[in-house]
Amino acid sequence: MKRTYFITGFPGFISSKLIQKLLMEDPNAHFELLVYKDQYYKATIEMDKLVKDSRYTIIKGDITLPDLGVDEETKNRLYNKVTHVFHLAAIYDLAVPEDLAYKVNVTGTEHVLQFVRQIYSLERFVYFSTAFVSGDRAGEILETELDCGQSFKNHYEATKYEAELRVQRHISELPTTIIRPGIVMGDSKTGETAKFDGPYFVMRFLDKFARIPIPYIGKGAALINLVPIDFVVNATVFLANDQRASGSVYHLTDPNPLTARKAYRLICETLLGKKPSYTLPTSIVYKTLSVPSFRKWVQVERETLDYFQLKAAYNCDQACEHLRGSGIECPNLADYLQQEVTYYKEHRHEHEKLIQVN
């Protein structure tokens, strides 16, 4: 049977890379892309770059609306045609307001689940969660764990947790694979990324103080879990086609993460050619970033600091076991950081890649 992939979150960076990989693996596939109306033009341009024929349909829709905001004729066509669903649409901003995060991440996922349950020939539903549904938990976090009474550092984490709870309620009735990535960086070979967020906030911070002695921020004993996008995409496509992955949850995380201090030093050395030389308490940096004028000047979200203090260690044994023999594994940060930094240096002044900090 010819595969038809229904994908939300396009033209986002991960969904774009996912489509590229799926095209390589399955040249005869058709793509049904649910795109928010404001992104329709951009989506059309992006797909014209990826596909030179009519193997895709762009559908104006909205996951926050019942029936995904599509008409009856389109719904019935999709119910009869779609074989695989990849749900990536979400608000990923760590500083997102609660109401917007809930509307998109939770209500939106509920609407996608209602849609998925109506598909006649569903082979796999792949839901993109995040490793950080663990919230403020400490110690080893297993792929089989979710609700452990944790609290959350921000509305992004809280709503992604609520959304995954809803997906897991249907995991016995739908052929579901849940993907929990760590902090996603650019491509390990080219450094390409769409937005300079996450660890790139560290690079933006270091840029501002490049000419003076650079401090460490806090003790940095926590493990920082960075993964390149090509690893995440390659692993996701492989698992989406693996029967063992139906009904399973995977931490697509680094099995050998660096401490935050080592990762910070490595970024500093690669970007500036020098090591940090003294330590500032995290509390001082956090208070400083609480001042809006300073935060806007340095262009760093204060929520980023929370991920340099995590006390969690993400067990990815099941992911490693199911990927064994595929040739897909997470590279060490030291092996690809130069590509990430080079790309950042070449594109750091491009407005569309900068997350605006308020």
Automatic annotation (TrEMBL):
It comes from the Bacteria. Pfam families: NAD_binding_4 (PF07993). Residues 7-236 form the Thioester reductase (TE) domain. InterPro entries: FAR, FAR_NAD-bd, NAD(P)-bd_dom_sf. This is 3-beta hydroxysteroid dehydrogenase. It comes from Pontibacillus salipaludis.
